[in-house]
Amino acid sequence: MRITAACLVAALIVPGAGTAPACAQEVKDSPARVLSLSECLAIALENNRSRPVSRFNVEIAEAQLQQALSSYWPRLDAKAVLTRMDESPNFIFPQTSIGLPGFTLPVPPPVGPLPIPPQTVAVPDQNIKVMDRDNGLYSLSLAYPLYTGGMRPAIVKQAESGLAAAKQEVRRTDLQVAYDVKRFYYGAVLARKLRVIASDALDRMQVTLDLTESLYKGGSTKVKKTDYLRNKTTVEALRSTFAQLKGTERLAMAALTNAMGIPWDAEIDVADSDIPYRPYEGDLRKFVAGAYAFNPDWKALEEGIRAAEGRLDEKRAGHLPRIALVGNLSHIENSYNKGLVTPENVNSWTAGIAMELPIFHGFRTAGEIREARARLEKLRQEKILLQEGIALQVKDVFLRMARSREQRKAMETAARTAEENRDLNERAYREELVETEDVIEAQLIESFMKAGNEKTLYDHAEAQARLELVVGTQIEAVLR
Question: What are phi and psi of 196, to 5 degrees?
Answer without folding.
Answer: -65, -40
